[in-house]
DNA sequence: AAAAAAC
């Protein structure tokens, strides 16, 4: 309620004149569709993002430790299957963009590290030749439109098929789910329910994800790929957990997909045994290994007592701390990195928009939505109440088809919101970090960070909801004076992935210095003044 | 560094 009032007040206090120049200035790098994007960025004096990124991944500016057993190759990346954008949504976007073939994205460099790394494959056919990929899986691949393996698929799948532990780092929207689902299905053999199965009784594969929505999405992907076979693939929930309390039912299950706490609850109640699990996958691994989830994960890992247990972790980001924990958990692991670690796809045109203060955010957003945009748009905020109140505020301002999603909503409300999104009924989805990871909405072409993300990882995952499977995307991030301490860090991410950043932001002092300043007695206005002094906007001309 | 998410 408080947040609601705050936002409303903000509306009344908005001074268009005062902020107009800032907003225009920092929107300069925004895309206006397909081909013109490159031109605009060229005008800023930079290389086009593709080239810039390419140069970077070629190792030009990056310092890389030469380590033993490490090799780097050009992966085909294979987002390369370019096609027209789906463009079945957003009838008011009306531009030639829909009909234009965008240039092929950069091929991602793939680097692997570990002992006896299996060769990658260049096609799904090769998986059949080398590993006898079952014909029904091949059929389902074709049926679901998978024609060529992406980078992570062509490297990761052979590794998993050869029963090795794997740590996979690959950008958002590059097909990580299939990379672990396919090997699991291939190795299952006969369903547990069948008399032919001699693989012991009980769950043989376990996939963990941080949110219900993501678990649900993974479940769907499994079902699609398993079509035609009788495996029991269970999305763990209160309801399914109850049915599995019966050991006979439980023994017939082949794959379980769950969130950690749900699983631990059943484990502790003695309603679930994991001693037959051969494949354990942690999706969004860094999220799963951070403080709140870690003990739950450890409990699950401990319960997976089968000697043939193989583990794999997947994520788009893996900070050093999480990577260390992951590597210690794995046995003789192979590490695969596609592209540059902690760098978003260059396909996403990113920009930073200065909004002065909290109160100016809403008006800026309303202005944004009063101009043409490509629905559906995902808007991220920092808390549940802010999500509800912002959604409410947009509705009050007659913005059509606004939706909201956060973990404070009931299971059904959440499911409905996701399904509206999937059906294209939501034009604007206001959400918390729940939606930041893993969710694959192919239509999303714009992400707005209404509240500034608190970590680079959060930023990368949030904007990774767009630009998926080789499509273009756009990401706008609002920042206020209060966000100054973290601004430069995020700005470097933009820069690294080929999006233009205003000079003055790059000239900001080191984040640590800014942070100390922000924590001290320094008035917020100081940042603005300093920014002006350094050369942002018209103000400098007065000097 | 801190919130959100998991039940």
Automatic annotation (TrEMBL):
GO terms for cellular component: cytosol; nucleus. Gene3D superfamilies: P-loop containing nucleotide triphosphate hydrolases (3.40.50.300). GO terms for molecular function: ATP binding; hydrolase activity; RNA binding; RNA helicase activity. Keywords: ATP-binding, Helicase, Hydrolase, Nucleotide-binding, Nucleus, Ribosome biogenesis, RNA-binding. It is found in: Nucleus. It holds the Pfam family Helicase_C. GO terms for biological process: maturation of SSU-rRNA. Residues 65-119 are annotated as: Disordered. Residues 65-74 have a biased composition (Basic and acidic residues). Residues 361-509 form the Helicase C-terminal domain. A motif (Q motif) lies at residues 126-154. The keyword Ligase does not apply. PROSITE patterns: DEAD_ATP_HELICASE (PS00039), HELICASE_ATP_BIND_1 (PS51192), HELICASE_CTER (PS51194), Q_MOTIF (PS51195). Its EC number is 3.6.4.13. InterPro entries: DDX52/Rok1_DEADc (IPR044764), DEAD/DEAH_box_helicase_dom (IPR011545), DEAD_box_RNA_helicase (IPR050079), Helicase_ATP-bd (IPR014001), Helicase_C-like (IPR001650), P-loop_NTPase (IPR027417), RNA-helicase_DEAD-box_CS (IPR000629), RNA_helicase_DEAD_Q_motif (IPR014014). Residues 126-154 form the DEAD-box RNA helicase Q domain. Belongs to the DEAD box helicase family. DDX52/ROK1 subfamily. This is RNA helicase. It comes from Jaapia argillacea MUCL 33604.
């Amino acid at each position: 309620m408080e947040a609601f009032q705050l936002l409303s007040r903000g509306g009344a206090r908005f001074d268009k004149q005062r902020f107009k120049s800032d907003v225009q200035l920092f929107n300069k790098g925004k895309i206006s569709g397909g081909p013109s994007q490159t031109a605009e960025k060229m005008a800023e004096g930079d290389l086009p993002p593709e080239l810039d990124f390419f140069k970077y991944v070629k190792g030009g500016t990056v310092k890389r430790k030469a380590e033993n057993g490490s090799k780097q190759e050009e992966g085909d990346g294979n987002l390369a299957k370019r096609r027209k954008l789906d463009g079945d949504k957003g009838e008011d976007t009306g531009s030639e963009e829909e009909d234009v073939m965008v240039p092929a994205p950069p091929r991602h460099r793939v680097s692997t590290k570990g002992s006896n790394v299996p060769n990658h494959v260049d096609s799904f056919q090769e998986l059949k030749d080398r590993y006898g990929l079952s014909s029904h899986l091949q059929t389902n691949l074709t049926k679901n439109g998978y024609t060529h393996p992406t980078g992570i698929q062509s490297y990761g799948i052979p590794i998993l098929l050869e029963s090795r532990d794997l740590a996979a780092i690959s950008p958002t929207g590059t097909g990580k789910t299939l990379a672990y689902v396919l090997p699991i299905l291939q190795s299952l053999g006969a369903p547990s329910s069948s008399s032919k199965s001699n693989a012991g009784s009980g769950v043989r594969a376990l996939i963990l994800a941080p949110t219900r929505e993501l678990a649900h999405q993974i479940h769907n992907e499994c079902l699609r790929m398993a079509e035609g076979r009788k495996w029991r693939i269970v999305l763990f929930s209160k309801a399914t957990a109850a049915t599995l309390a019966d050991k006979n039912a439980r023994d017939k299950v082949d794959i379980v997909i769950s969130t950690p706490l749900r699983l631990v609850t059943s484990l502790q109640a003695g309603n679930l045994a994991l001693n037959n699990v051969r494949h354990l996958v942690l999706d969004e691994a860094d999220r799963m290994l951070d403080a709140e989830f870690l003990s739950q994960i450890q409990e699950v890992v401990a319960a997976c007592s089968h000697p043939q247990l193989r583990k794999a972790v997947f994520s788009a980001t893996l900070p050093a701390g999480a990577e260390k924990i992951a590597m210690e958990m794995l046995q003789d692991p192979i590490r695969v990195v596609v592209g540059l670690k902690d760098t978003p796809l260059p396909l996403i045109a990113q920009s930073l928009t200065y909004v002065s203060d909290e109160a100016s955010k809403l008006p800026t957003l309303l202005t944004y939505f009063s101009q043409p945009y490509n629905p559906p748009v995902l808007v991220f905020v920092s808390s549940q109440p802010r999500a509800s109140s912002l959604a409410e505020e947009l509705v009050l301002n007659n913005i059509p088809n606004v939706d909201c999603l956060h973990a404070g909503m009931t299971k059904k409300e959440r499911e409905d919101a996701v399904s509206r999104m999937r059906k294209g009924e939501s034009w604007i989805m206001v959400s918390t970090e729940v939606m930041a990871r893993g969710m694959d909405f192919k239509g999303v072409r714009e992400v707005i960070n209404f509240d500034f993300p608190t970590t680079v990882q959060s930023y990368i995952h949030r904007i990774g909801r767009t630009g998926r499977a080789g499509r273009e995307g756009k990401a706008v991030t609002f920042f206020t004076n209060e966000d100054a301490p973290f601004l430069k860090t995020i700005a470097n991410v933009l820069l690294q992935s080929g999006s233009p950043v205003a000079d003055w932001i790059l000239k900001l002092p080191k984040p640590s210095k800014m942070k100390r300043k922000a924590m001290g007695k320094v008035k917020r206005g100081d940042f603005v003044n300093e920014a002006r002094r350094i050369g942002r906007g018209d103000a400098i001309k007065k000097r």
